[in-house]
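Whiteboard transcription, Tuesday session. T.W. wrote the structure tokens on the left side:
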């Protein structure tokens, strides 16, 4: 039984690939020509060159595969051409599922995101059934993941598709790094003098990799499963990072309104002069106003999804970034 993994050279994809190999499942990785493949270097995997938006390359890649893990996505909160986000995340998902259906695969695991789920007004932990208000979705990335998930749900009526919704993963093989990983890198480099008062659900990336395999085995078609861990405030997460890294945590908390105003100036500078930070955007600041807390109980109970403590997951992430030269050693 061979598995195709789209996005296998990325952060989550590389962890999915390793989880599959640990189970003895042969893996084929869809990789764009010329893409960075360090995350799977040295692994016993087959590389199929192609793109999720190219049906002909997907047809070749899925041939002979019983399982498809569609992990590939454009994860960006700031881009000069937002249409590319929708082409990759929405149209790409439709193309992958269409070719999987034509090939008659046994099962597809689609990697969505908690960004596609609803949030509770009272700040409590949301579940897979928390209502989504599409008009309240902030930013192109989140909106594209919501739309892509609707495509996956549509296909699940005629193709076995299980949907997983990772929260905020941290851990090894975040080689780009992702926006979440960049927070850790900034902390380790001493580039985080202050923080925003927000909260998130942190999950171990290796647990997420195993969660995909569990979803393929035990998940119900058409169902969503939050692959999450612990809910923590930003202050709590920075405190844990201080403990595992030996570095001091920033004590200054930034006020929301001035930072939002600064983010608009930064966005204007990016648009007109190409200068500024792509991490300080109106979208990211507005998102920080809402604590994104989630309840992974369904995945734990139905799939047996593991729950590595946040502190341990952060320690693995710190170790990996230091060992790979993203930040000074301890």
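and on the right, the sequence the group agreed on:
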């Amino acid at each position: 039984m061979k598995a195709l993994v789209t996005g296998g050279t990325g952060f989550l994809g590389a962890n999915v690939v390793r989880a599959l190999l640990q189970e003895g499942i042969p893996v084929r990785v869809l990789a764009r020509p010329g893409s960075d493949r360090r995350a799977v270097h040295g692994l016993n995997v087959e590389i199929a060159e192609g793109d999720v938006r190219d049906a002909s390359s997907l047809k070749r890649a899925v041939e002979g595969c019983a399982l498809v893990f569609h992990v590939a996505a454009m994860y960006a909160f700031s881009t000069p051409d937002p249409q590319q986000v929708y082409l990759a995340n929405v149209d790409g998902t439709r193309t992958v599922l269409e070719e999987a259906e034509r090939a008659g695969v046994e099962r597809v695991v689609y990697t969505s995101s908690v960004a596609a789920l609803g949030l509770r007004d009272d700040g409590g932990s949301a579940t897979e059934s928390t209502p989504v208000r599409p008009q309240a979705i902030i930013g192109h990335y989140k909106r594209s993941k919501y739309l892509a998930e609707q495509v996956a749900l549509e296909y699940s009526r005629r193709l076995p598709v299980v949907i997983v919704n990772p929260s905020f993963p941290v851990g090894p093989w975040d080689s780009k790094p992702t926006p979440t990983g960049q927070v850790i890198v900034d902390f380790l480099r001493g580039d985080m003098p202050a923080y925003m008062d927000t909260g998130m659900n942190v999950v171990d990336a290796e647990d997420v990799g195993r969660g995909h395999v569990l979803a393929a085995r035990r998940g119900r078609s058409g169902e969503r499963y939050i692959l999450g861990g612990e809910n923590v405030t930003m202050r709590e997460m920075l405190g844990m990072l201080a403990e595992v890294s030996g570095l001091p945590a920033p004590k200054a908390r930034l006020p929301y309104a001035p930072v939002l105003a600064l983010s608009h100036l930064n966005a204007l500078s990016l648009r007109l002069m190409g200068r500024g930070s792509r991490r300080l955007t109106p979208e990211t600041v507005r998102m920080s106003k809402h604590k994104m807390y989630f309840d992974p109980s369904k995945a734990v109970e139905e799939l047996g999804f593991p729950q590595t403590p946040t502190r341990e997951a952060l320690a693995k992430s710190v170790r990996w970034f230091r060992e790979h030269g993203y930040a000074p050693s301890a």
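Someone added at the bottom: The longest strand covers residues 161-166.
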